[in-house]
Write a sequence for this structure.
């Protein structure tokens, strides 16, 4: 049996401003109408059982909802209380499945990769599966098409027309000169970060080389509990785990490692330039998405989410315009976007955390305008959904119903509001907004007060078990 393990905890900082901490690239429609996470789920082989997804607290409802959207049933969603890299994350899944299945084979996949040729991917899985059944720890190495400096590499024991190779070494992301040498030698593959192995063999090797990781993961799962459709583990015990990748913890040390070459149109979509390479270009080498007008523009990627972007007399640029942030950079510098994100984080800019539109388990809100002591939001509540019973210490709220019917709790009063009706929620008053109809509820909320941060929410009751 094959059990997929989907690692969905990445932040995708190199695709800022479209990818942000609360809504990162794996949950965005970047290459087609579905998200990268949804694409990962739908290209699983037919013989695979329901997948296990490992993600963090912030993304749990995105994972559940996006799986539901494409009618994929998940085995479970394990919540990491803190990121500890891939070795502990995979260990959690391996321990979990060994409690429920006998001799399971795991295929470990990242949630944010693009693979064009599903058939070639499935063929590689069949080869890896045979190796995993013979107690090998298998990784998938991408046949390189260019001298990339953004990927790690796997040095192989070269054999002609082999289905798999022995591994000589794992190599960190090289400089350009070394990347060219790797490409020309024919002895290197890109490190995809995808794996296949028997769960018990992985845990055995992990115990041999990094026993602290295994001990921490076992203890954290011994105190697990179910929260809605999510599995929560012991944070204190999990935090004791060393922060290590599976490559460093196991694959570089074991004598059981093999690599299966993969040529399937793979990309980790790790930069704007990489994303551009996967898109259809016009006659001048440009990729255009959204409301964009060009004049004498070459080899550039221009993206607009909401307004007109006009460009003239430029070349080799990346221009990404969202509702609240604009990025302009050169194509050859697109891997360095993380430096901008670091500066924004240092300056405590909220643009690295959230988009203007923020999705919630009950719907979403869109921050329309913000000024001194006020903020305006458009709020959409899904049919039958409701916000938490809550109060605010620093702000009052004014609600106007745009469409639908709102059930309002304000102090001891409970009443309904229809289109064009409004209400006032005083500062400190206990309140709740609920959609009791079978169609969406839309309201405009005007907040007033000396502090309007999202952390000014004291939840008293919540259907989604949020703090």
């Amino acid at each position: 049996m094959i059990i997929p393990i989907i690692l969905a905890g990445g932040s995708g900082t190199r695709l800022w401003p479209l990818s942000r901490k609360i809504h990162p690239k794996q949950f965005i429609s970047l290459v087609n109408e579905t998200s990268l996470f949804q694409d990962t789920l739908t290209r699983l082989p037919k013989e695979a059982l329901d997948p296990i997804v490992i993600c963090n607290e912030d993304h749990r409802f995105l994972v559940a909802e996006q799986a539901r959207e494409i009618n994929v049933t998940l085995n479970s969603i394990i919540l990491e209380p803190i990121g500890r890299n891939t070795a502990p994350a995979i260990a959690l899944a391996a321990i979990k499945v060994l409690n429920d299945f006998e001799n399971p084979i795991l295929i470990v996949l990242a949630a944010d990769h693009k693979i064009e040729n599903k058939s070639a991917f499935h063929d590689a899985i069949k080869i890896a599966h045979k190796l995993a059944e013979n107690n090998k720890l298998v990784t998938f190495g991408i046949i390189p098409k260019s001298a990339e400096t953004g990927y790690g590499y796997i040095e192989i024991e070269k054999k002609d027309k082999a289905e798999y190779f022995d591994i000589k070494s794992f190599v960190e992301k090289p400089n350009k000169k070394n990347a060219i040498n790797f490409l020309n030698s024919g002895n290197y593959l890109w490190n995809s970060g995808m794996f296949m192995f028997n769960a018990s063999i992985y845990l055995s090797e992990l115990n041999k080389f990094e026993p602290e990781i295994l001990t921490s993961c076992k203890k954290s799962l011994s105190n697990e509990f179910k929260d809605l459709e999510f599995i929560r583990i012991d944070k204190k015990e999990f935090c004791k785990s060393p922060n290590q990748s599976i490559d460093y913890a196991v694959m570089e040390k074991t004598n059981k490692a093999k690599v299966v070459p993969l040529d399937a149109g793979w990309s980790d979509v790790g930069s704007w330039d990489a994303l551009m390479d996967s898109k259809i270009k016009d006659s001048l080498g440009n990729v255009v998405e959204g409301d964009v007008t060009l004049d004498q523009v070459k080899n550039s990627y221009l993206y607009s989410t909401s307004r007109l972007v006009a460009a003239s007399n430029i070349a080799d640029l990346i221009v990404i315009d969202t509702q609240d942030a604009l990025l302009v950079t050169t194509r050859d510098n697109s891997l360095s976007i993380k430096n901008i994100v670091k500066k924004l984080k240092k300056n405590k800019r909220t643009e690295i955390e959230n988009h203007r539109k923020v999705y919630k388990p009950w719907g979403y809100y869109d921050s329309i305008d913000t000024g001194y002591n006020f903020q305006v939001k458009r709020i959409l509540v899904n049919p039958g959904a409701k916000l938490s019973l809550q109060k605010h210490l620093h702000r009052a709220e004014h609600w106007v119903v745009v469409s639908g019917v709102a059930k309002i709790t304000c102090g001891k009063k409970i009443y309904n509001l229809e289109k064009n009706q409004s209400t006032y929620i005083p500062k400190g008053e206990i309140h709740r907004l609920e959609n009791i109809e079978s169609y969406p509820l839309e309201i405009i909320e005007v907040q007033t007060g000396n502090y309007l941060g999202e952390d000014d929410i004291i939840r008293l009751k919540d259907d989604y078990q949020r703090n």
